[in-house]
Amino acid sequence: MAKRFHSLLTKTLSVMLAALLVAMTMLEIVQVIMRYFAGSGFVWTGDVTVILMQSLAWIGAPALWLMRGHIAVELISGSGKGRASALALVVDAGIVAGGAALLYYGQDALAAFANIDIPSLGTTGDIKYYPMMAGALLLVIAGLLNLATGSRYTSASDQTS
């Protein structure tokens, strides 16, 4: 069950990352076209682009952690023997603890920016911290899934084949 959820979450996050990249690309294309034909672009594109970029980072980190798709993650994940295995276990537990702490203390950031307006979007500044909170939750889930499935013992190339 945990391995199926691990696989499903990895695929879902990959699709979300692709959709975010497409959205950012399309937004920039529209912005260039608007500047060329109308002389100015939309006021809100800068703020939306920041949110999309933050979303890419905060969704990408758990995706890479689940896939073991980054060199730093593969260095930590080890070969599944002895100290490397124990280190991978400790690091996965640390990811869970760090993500949980970020969720807890991130509430302060949300509260601090809840009263600051972003006029171009017609909303408050806390919207810029939603990707961080989602990413923190996804990191907790990714760490727990890696602990539950034992995927810390495999590399990204093993999982894709």
TrEMBL record:
The chain crosses the membrane at residues 12-37, 43-66, 86-105, 129-148. Keywords: Cell inner membrane, Cell membrane, Membrane, Transmembrane, Transmembrane helix, Transport. GO terms for molecular function: transmembrane transporter activity. The complex comprises the extracytoplasmic solute receptor protein and the two transmembrane proteins. Part of the tripartite ATP-independent periplasmic (TRAP) transport system. Belongs to the TRAP transporter small permease family. GO terms for biological process: C4-dicarboxylate transport. Residues 24-149 form the Tripartite ATP-independent periplasmic transporters DctQ component domain. Its main location: membrane. It is a multi-pass membrane protein. InterPro entries: DctQ (IPR055348), TRAP_DctQ (IPR007387). It is found in: Cell inner membrane. One of its GO terms (cellular component) is plasma membrane. This is TRAP transporter small permease protein.
